[in-house]
Amino acid sequence: MASNVVYLRNLNIAPRKVRVVVDLIRLKPVAEASDILRFLVKLGAEPVRKLLESAVANVRQEGTMDVDTLIVKSVFVDQARMLKRFTPRAQGRATKILKKSSHVTLEVGVK
User: Fold this and answer.
1) Euclidean distance between the first and the last CA atom of the chain, given in angstroms as a whole number
2) DSSP label at 11?
3) Tens of pLDDT along 43-59?
4) In sequence order, what are the beta bridge partners of 8?
5) Which of 44, 45, 69 is nearest to 59 (CA)?
6) Would you tell me which of 24, 88, 95, 102 could form a disulfide with 11, CB atoms 3.0–4.6 Å apart?
7) What is the pTM of this model?
8) At CA 22, angle to CA 16 and CA 26, rounded to 5?
9) How far, in Å, CA of 21 to CA of 43, rounded?
């Protein structure tokens, strides 16, 4: 059983926000997952949908599998780099701001 893995690196959205999106499409057929992502009102839905379309386009170009039978075999989100910033606070203090980003890994294949 062959599969195709694609990566999205350094997405400037926190991993906990992207995980909500990818949990909705895990183990779903590609057509259904694409529909879910197209109508989902979340910031991470659009980049994940483009990643899914890229994976399907790779499979089409290789010609190794039938696109109609593809499912999202696995998808997960890891934390990427973190930008560290400071903001001024009262009495001369400063507070850290951690701007997190994500790495998304998506694998499509047949059952």
Assistant:
1) 8
2) E
3) 999 999 999 999 999 99
4) 104
5) 69
6) 102
7) 0.91
8) 140
9) 9
